[in-house]
Amino acid sequence: MKRLALALVLAACKSRGEAPPPPEAPPPVMPESEAKRGKDACHAFVAKVCACAETTPPLVEACKLARPLVDALDVALEVAANPESARRDALQANATARKIVKECIEETAKLPGAGCP
C-alpha cells in the first residue's frame, strides 16, 4: 500500500514538471510608415550627397559609401519582415535598420558643414 501511494505521488510530481515550453512570440514588425520614412531619409541622403559630390570633390567618397546604405536598409527590413526569420534575427534586423536610418539622417545634417547647400 505504501509503495502504491509513493508511486502515485512520484507520478503526479513528474507529470507536472514536464510542461511544454510556451510558444515563442512572433517577432515585432516595423510599422510600414516607419520603414517608409527611413527609406525616404536614406534615398534623400544619397541623392543629396551624390549631387554635391559633383561640385565638392571631398564628397565623392561619401557618395560611394552612401549607396550601399540603401541596400543594407532594404536587406534589414526584408529580414525583419520575413515570417520565417527567428525572433532574435528579426529584432536584430529592426535594430540594424534603425541604426542605418539614424546614420542617414545624421550624415544629411553634416552636409552643409561639408560645403553642400
Question: How would you characterize this protein structure?
Answer:
- The protein has helices at residues 2-17, 32-53, 60-81, 87-110.
- The protein has 117 residues and is an all-alpha fold.
- The protein has a domain at 56-117.
- The protein is rod-shaped, with a radius of gyration of 26 Å.
How would you summarize this macromolecular structure in one to three sentences?
72% of the residues lie in helices and 0% in strands. The chain is mainly α.
Distinctive features:
117 residues, mainly alpha, 4 helices, 72% helix
Separation of termini? 92 Å
**On the 0-100 scale, what is the average pLDDT?**
85
Number of helices: 4
Beta-strand fraction estimate: under 5%
Rounded Rg: 26 Å
Task: List how many beta strands DSSP finds.
Answer: 0
Low-confidence parts lasting 5 or more residues at pLDDT below 50? none
Structural class: mainly alpha
Report the helical percentage.
over 70%
Largest sheet: none
Oligomer: single chain
- The general outline is rod-shaped
The helix/strand order is HHHH
